[in-house]
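Colleagues,

Please find the record for the two-part complex below.
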Amino acid sequence: MISLEYELILSAILFAIGMFGILRRKNAIVVLMSVEIVLNAAIMNFVAFSSYAHANGASGQVFALFAIAVAAAEAAIGLAMFIVFYRRFKTIDIDKGSMLRW
Amino acid sequence: MSYQVLSPIIILLAFAFAIIIVNMFVKSKRRYFAYMALTGMIISLILVVDMAGLSFTSAMGLDLWDSPVNLTFPNLKLKVDAFSLFFYVVFLIAGILVTIGSISYIEKEEKYRAEYFSLMLLAVVGMMLVASTTDLFVLYLAFELTSISTYALAAFRKKDKASAEAGLKFFLMGAVSSAIALFGISIVYGVTAFTPGGPTTDLSQISDALNFALQGGIAHVQIPIILGSILLIAGFGFKIAIVPFHMWAPDVYQGSPTTISAFLAAGTKKGGFAAFFQLFLVALIAAKFQWGLLVGILAVITMVVGNVLAIVQTDLKRMLAYSSIAQAGYILIAICVGTLAFDGDVDTAQLAVAGGLLHILIHVFMKSGAFLVVALTATAKVGENLNDYKGLYRRMPIVAFCMTILLLSLAGIPPLGGFFSKFVLFSSAVNAGGWFVWLAVFGVLNSALSLYYYVRVIKYMYILKGEDESRVKVPTALYVAVILATLGVILSGLLAEPLISFAKAAAGGLLGG
């Protein structure tokens, strides 16, 4: 059986990839995809911990399902928002929004 | 089980869906939906106040429930006690003020009005669930309900460039912070998985599990706990806009429709604080040596950065946004000092949390009132820039007077509500001694600093001469909302004594359970 460490390393790598994408990329859709990767890292954590726990581990798997549902809702409203933004600015580059600066 | 104590939440949900359903059949009635939303929130508020034992029925001994209510629903992961009732009052007041203001503010948008009010009700429901949940994961889900509703509200003016940009920024920041918070929750869940209680996300069981782990139950547990705490501070810190996670707030508050800015600053941000209180003073309190000092440092940085950047702003919405960031710094003091409950010094901790809660309540009046004044001047074609406020005293005298009261209360001038909450907050930090005193010192210095930019607005309104000094017709609904908020600020100063005991009961509910 694969030990817990490997699963945690995988989720840490996913988290790092996601954070890199969030901080580095300018395209809003790529940023949203990076957010989904971070969410997936967290979901992996839940499933991994719940299956390696001593007892009563089903809760983590339930949380994973709920988190997937939340991620879907977020993607839905996010893409709608990108369309609104695109209609005003003709781009979805997040740096191109230039109305609000201090 | 007496599920009727959940009726404030259920009523709001029913009205939220009813608005959508009615919208399918009725298109013509112009202000119908605002009144529906308002009715729902007022009924809900009356019920909440009744449950808190503050109304006629309990005075006459006619109450159907113990007051204040204290009931737990283990299957629903919900709890209704003094703490959650306090936050219900906060959220409902914010919702009511903003809804009244919206009646005249969103006159121009004929379409999608039903969705606007329905989403606002759902956001309030989400925050109420945050305040009454007993489970970390449910807290996350409830917060997502609020967040997703408010993303759509921030971008409500689809034709407006600034609103579209504000919505996009708010959504991206919110999504990133939710993902980070969820990762933090998963790490905390992982730590509890190896304690005798088994994996859990129940807030008080997490506290027991972390206590067990840190007492030596698990080897090398420090690093995961520190990591989890930092991720949770970052995740929820975005929501309440503490420095260094504050960059989105001024942009979003400036770009959103002003009533929504009021709702975000007065309502949603308080939801973030409800989450912060639940998270750090119930679940993670056993790990306070891992995060206590960090939160203290962030509180000081938040106050200083918020106030200093507010000074250079000329757009009033931006100025209020930075002032709102600074106020978040003051409220964080309550969380730092509240950790003393873990050492057994419950009295000081309770006083601090009560001060924080009181400041949250009064801040709702002050901040939503100030934003609604800006919405009012924008709707009356006066503008929302500082220069547009020159000679406002002659153009709309009562509004200028209300704004003066609200700003003075934000600065913490004695007879008004803002003074008492800050006083309780800072004095609890001084009582606590140790490094907490520095929090109070910085708080007082920052209050003095903030006086500069609040009084500057008053100077513009009263002393400087404007180019156009003709009287302006004031939109009625916004006028009513502004006056209600001002009355709230004045009354909370006069009724400081009972409010402090209400807040203390709420703090006791949080720290006791």
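Residues 346-379 of chain B form the longest helix (34 residues).

Comments are welcome before we finalize the supplementary table.
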